[in-house]
Amino acid sequence: MKFGGTSLANWPRFLMAADIIAESSKLEPVATVLSAPATITNALLEMVDLAVEGKSYQAVVQHIDTVFNTLYAQASEELLAPAQQSLLQEKLNAQMLQWKHKLEGICLLGECPDSVRAAIVVSGERLSAALMEQVMLAKGITSAQLDPVSLFLAHGQPLESVVDINVSKPRFSVLPLNDYRVWVMPGFTAADAHGKIVTLGRNGSDYSAAVLAACLNASSCEIWTDVDGVYNTDPRVVTDAKLLAQLSYQEAMELSYFGAKVLHPKTIAPIAQYHIPCYIKNSFNPSAPGTL
Ligand code: ASP
Fold this sequence. Notes:
The chain is an alpha/beta fold. The chain is built from 11 helices and 10 strands.
């Protein structure tokens, strides 16, 4: 089950996603892939760009800090134990300190290698995953994280890598998969052959979910987004666009090549290759059937 940035943008939405995961985990174990909350990835990239130009990035750091602190504060009011809030706060502080050191270096150099940019830009996903793990535990559900850095081996450019499923899949066989009901993985993230963090490209979390589904032989892959499913044409342009109940991998691939943003062609390849049913579902309207 993959949740995108808009589905995690603030605490009420984050909780809605958590409820969907919790409900599903009653039926079968769930592995979930999370994006960074909306605005965070762009903010991280902007922070790096400002540092490269030697400009002040404090306002952007402040924005990121506020987004996560607000999430933690509201989560704690409603659900989390004080110790859980402190744990998340410590993770955020450690992350901020890491950014600070890296950004100072980038400022001095006046440039940022892609591998350093990748390591910074995936941190939004990590913070999302840490929060979801704590939310699951607070709901009394056994939960642990899947680390995409040690599990997904990827090739290609540091900011646009492709996962080698043949090498990555066997790495899952040593995990105590049955010990936890909900596994949480940060999306968008993998590592190269040297263990260095790479990204799977912008909007790469859908692809993370497809690869994870393939690695786990999942019974299905669910992409939870902010629309009811795949339409036969762009519903923002054509008012009587029809929602499709289902389409083939081939049709999905063609639609995405012609510009449908709902699924990237890269995402469709692993689920098609491993014949995994994929549902596009709306996290704001979970009872709608979605598109298969
Ligand atoms: N957060 C990343 C992005 O905005 C990856 C994703 O959400 O899929 O590109």
